[in-house]
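User: Hi! Is it possible to get a structure for several chains at once, not just one? Here's what I have:
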Amino acid sequence: MASEDEFKVLGLWFSPFALRVLIGLEEKGIKYEYIEEDWMSNHSPLLLEMNPVHKKIPVLIHNGRPVAESAIIVEYIDELWSNGPAFLSSDPYDRALARFWVDFIEKKLIVPGRLILFRSKGEEQEEGKRQFIESLAMLEEALRGKNYMGGNAFGIADIACAPMICWFHTYEIFGDFKIMFEDKFLSIFMWMMKCMERESVKKILPEQEKVLQVVSQARKIILKET
Ligand code: GS8
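Assistant: Yes, the chains can be modeled jointly so their relative placement is included. Here is the combined structure:
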């Protein structure tokens, strides 16, 4: 990796997947150009060219070469900048665990979270809520007695989960429930506080009210609400 290397990120400011990449780059102190996709219109020609398979953000473009899929991008960043704190442990078992939790965040929080946000049928929403709360309980268990997901160092599983911090409020509003962090999920609550003390997370996460606004706009389109 040379100092004149060029990095561009294709993203959406509220996407939990794009936010992972930006937090990763900030953590390593990497300069990059951020290019915002327009979520209301069709995919940009650049996105279609850079991620023709999934046609999804985020994409990291390193000297013109694209890397897609947030977790893969964050690992790529970690491998490129091996000087500086590592996102993954040197221990294979710890690495496997960290990757397990990265995968968990998408499958067990973000996917059921979509049922809460973008389904109008009561029972589908309820099922989303049930799964979401169940997953928070698992996350709580995994974080108990630890500073970060992997122990003492902020790592890839924290980077993968940190964007949820600015989304929790939106889940609560549209799911009409309260997460009760201080009562039921104290370890997650403490972890959120620690993450929010980090310059990278503080700088990158949008305000929760802004996430709420954009999700209500998206809901109107998806659910054809007026
Ligand atoms: C998910 C990316 C994704 O869903 C990752 O990068 O980790 N597994 C992937 N991106 C969404 C925006 S965030 O909800 C996206 O780009 N959607 C556009 C589309 O589906 O057309």
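The chain has two domains: 7-80, 92-225. The domain at 7-80 is CATH 3.40.30.10 (Glutaredoxin).

User: Great, thank you!
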